[in-house]
Specification:
The structure is a homotetramer of 210-residue chains. Chain A contains 9 helices and no strands. The first copy, chain A, is mostly helical and 210 residues long. The first copy, chain A, has 2 domains: 1-51, Arc Repressor Mutant, subunit A, CATH 1.10.10; 62-198, Tetracycline Repressor, domain 2 (Orthogonal Bundle). Chain A is elongated and about 60 Å long. Chain A starts with a helix and ends in a 12-residue tail after the last helix. Chains A and B meet through helix 1, helix 6, helix 8 and helix 9 of A and helix 1, helix 6, helix 7, helix 8 and helix 9 of B. The structure holds a DNA duplex (21 and 21 nucleotides).
DNA sequence: CATGAATGAGGTTTCATTCAT
DNA sequence: AATGAATGAAACCTCATTCAT
């Protein structure tokens, strides 16, 4: 990468970082392009050389987390299709859990930002992404039910319950109001909730995270 | 109530109602005082005779739900203190659940608004209220654990899991993406989650709601 | 008119006047709302209580001249329809000329502004108005030709020639590069052009203007 | 011309052409250097290697028409001074008309651009050029009057009338609202106007144009 | 020669809030 | 009690021009 590209990439990264910080701090609605640009060490106009506007920056910021997440789901879907036995299926499931937790840890603040803005009106696109997420989780649950891996029931309801529970736990952790003993404990807790709700009584070996 | 007070109360109510609608529709940040006042059939300036500003209106709007909710918790706390047997304890618990669901149904849109703005930065007071709510739920769970009503464990974690699960279910219902067969089914589902998470195996008679 | 309405009317008038001056001075494109508002003795925001934006102000400004002008043409059309003899027809024609000149004198600067912006791209609506004007003039000329009042020929061409000639004369007068002996001389010159182009050899009594 | 100069000239020409197109399309004020440079296949910065700025480009664009026009007038002036008989004078006059029409046809879009911007405030230099043009035409008319070629009168007024008439005709043709049967008809019409206004009754042979 | 990143002034518009009527 | 005119801060975005590479 030449000197120019390098510099450009650095500035773009600075904007993503400062934008994230400002969005988190004051909400997307009241964070201003001016502030963000200044925080990233550049003039207002320069901002527009890198992003089309505040919304585009926001999209890029959360894309850092959402894009790999969705890519991962594509991956999982393919693996599940290929899985022949319940054990293979379960393994896919577990690895997925571990990958989600790792992504969530890597993009801690982005996830927090997503929590912050998810139900607001500032960024309507988020609800769409959320819905897509729910659909994918539900279809995975349905698959697990169909293959007899878990207690049968309403896959949608169960998925929502699990999602809500983990969401809330994660949120409290991120906000600092819930302190777990070690980074991987969240995955463990998630697994517990999962097994309780889905009536999973298989022995589930713990997956090391981080 | 005299003619004057009556009129005043009517206008205040109109503002609360219009404010709620606008806040829901566009978010607190972008709803304008102008719109709200006009929607309530009065001029911009008049608005300020009833509320100190947009934030004050928002506080009043969500207070309609939160104040009775908190009052109810005061009530529950007192009753729990007075309960001598596990059965009495359970009964308090169940009545509480029913009252919460009824409150939530009565103030449907307010609750939706709270969901919308809860994690945003627009109204910082909300996080405080949320925290208070969590503390109360946790202490109730702790009490139930102490009295041997439910499986022992981390009361905080369990409470968060339950709260998160119910929250998410309720949210999907409110948003229209989850349709339940009858109004009371949410309470039933909540009970199921509760029993699964807390290992409650007592027979729980269904409580009629609404 | 109450004190309030009076004040409001005064401010609106001030904006029209200042707007006209600024538009003339720097062109519509580079005149700023800020300047105009300041020039009219009010804050930027106040401007928007009176007009929807710069374009709306411009429309209002030129409407002061164009609206009466078009109304006058409606009038003339009606009168021409009612005219039974060539002499009556001619009289209508002459009175029209006098009224146009008077309007032009009354709204001197507005007309100058119209000249300024007419062929530019800033205000596309102007070309439409201009076209309407041309059509009306053409149909009047056609009528005069049909009734044998003037030498027959291409009414459109003749009208354009006359319009262009008078336009240019008027423009030079307004800009200050052409000084006529007395206010009414423009009307006289216009009449001369008219008679030359249209081959009018009737005796045309001079119409006093102003 | 060396390879370098050739390339340079080609780029300059590209800028002139693209600039003309953009200026016509959106007006000088809102055409951006960015667009023009991009349209001419080069970067923003490169533009400034060829022109001092947007205004300089505009000057150069209209200079393409105005410079030959003025040079032609120098020419005409010299020829008129040398003309000894009225017939020679008239011939000069006619050739001039033909040359003007040809220039106008060659630089069609430039002339249209001049019409567009002439009375605006964007480019103050235009009014100066226009004034110079008027002075020259006037002095030619004066000369023709002095030599008894045309009916005597106010040379300035007559010149303006003729200029205005032709201007308007040409404008309507360029804008597409007036369609003439053949390219040269505009010259014929101009001649008619001229003869009517100046009382020219000499036989004027038609000059082939284009 | 050519580039395009950077700047920052400048423009339009919205809105919470105050205050004279 | 009610009004709505007035304010001015603040936000977004564009663009001519400069300058290091």
């Amino acid at each position: 990468m030449g000197r120019r590209e390098e510099n450009k990439a650095r500035k773009r990264a600075a904007l993503l970082q400062t934008g994230l910080a400002m969005f988190l701090d004051q909400g997307v609605a009241s964070a201003s392009v001016e502030q963000i640009a200044a925080g990233a060490g550049m003039a207002r106009g320069t901002f527009y050389l890198y992003f089309d506007g505040k919304d585009a920056l926001f999209e890029a910021v959360i894309g850092q987390f959402f894009d790999p997440l969705m890519a991962m789901f594509d991956d999982v879907e393919a693996q599940l299709d290929a899985a022949k036995t319940p054990e293979a299926c379960l393994q896919v499931y577990q690895i997925m859990a571990a990958r989600i937790v790792m992504l969530g840890m890597t993009w801690r603040d982005v996830v927090l930002l997503v929590f912050q803005e998810m139900r607001g009106q500032s960024v309507p696109g988020l609800r769409t992404r959320e819905r897509a997420l729910i659909e994918r989780i539900t279809s995975l649950t349905q698959l697990a039910m169909d293959r007899g891996l878990v207690r049968k029931g309403d896959a949608r309801l169960a998925s929502l319950v699990i999602l809500g529970a983990i969401e809330r736990l994660y949120y409290e952790v991120l906000v600092g109001d819930l302190t777990l003993k070690e980074p991987g404990e969240l995955a463990t807790e998630a697994t517990v909730v999962l097994s309780r709700i889905l009536g999973l009584d298989l022995e589930m070996p713990r997956i090391p995270v981080g």
